[in-house]
Design goal:
Four Helix Bundle (Hemerythrin (Met), subunit A), 0% strand, single chain, mainly alpha
């Protein structure tokens, strides 16, 4: 349990706290529940920054482990994937029945499907003894998704009065979905050798 992995475990605790706040938030009870959005946003920011920190430390001090390669993306999925799923919940519906996040269910399906596919590829590769760390496309995807989550939290909360930021929200979501879908191809290429070897076997 080296320092990078300890940070990842701490990030998991933050992710759980973030999920609890998101699950309990009720847009129809604003402004009484505004504090939940504020806390959720800052917890998310700390968790996202710590994701960069643990990866940097692991590479700098040569402390990359199989445990870290598996746990780190798992926490990412809990944090980001969980946020997108909860955005579709009743807590983010206004008094007219409209979801205030501009997020469509099919977008969440694309995001979750991508994560399930990459998790399967990672498990297959690790089981064969081949390291399967996140590549640059995966890192870019994480940054874009994290920005989208933070953007939603702010534009339905503290910055909801800034009309032009709210109007940009659908475009931010589209960019996140496109980058997420595009990142799949880099992982398929990375897994090609292992998959071909298995097919020959």
């Amino acid at each position: 349990m080296n320092l990078p992995n300890q940070i990842t475990v701490g990030r998991f605790v933050l992710a759980v706290a973030f999920m609890v706040l998101m699950a309990r938030f009720d847009h129809r009870a604003l402004p009484g529940t505004q504090w939940m959005l504020d806390w959720a946003f800052w917890i998310f920011i700390v968790a996202a920054v710590s994701d960069i920190l643990d990866g940097y430390l692991a590479r700098k001090y040569n402390q990359v482990t199989s445990f870290g390669r598996i746990l780190d993306p798992f926490v990412d999925k809990i944090l980001v994937g969980g946020a997108f799923v909860l955005f579709l919940g009743t807590g983010f519906v206004d008094n007219t029945g409209r979801n205030v996040t501009d997020l469509a269910a099919w977008m969440v399906v694309v995001i979750i499907a991508r994560e399930l596919l990459v998790t399967g590829l990672r498990s297959f590769s690790e089981a064969g003894g081949k390291p399967y760390a996140a590549n640059w496309w995966g890192k870019i995807k994480m940054v874009v998704q994290s920005f989208a989550v933070g953007y939603i939290l702010q534009t339905i909360g503290a910055l909801s009065h800034v009309a032009w930021l709210v109007q940009l929200r659908p475009y931010v979501l589209w960019i996140a979905v496109i980058v997420t879908a595009g990142s799949v191809f880099s992982y398929l290429v990375a897994s090609r050798a292992a998959l071909s070897e298995q097919a020959r076997g």
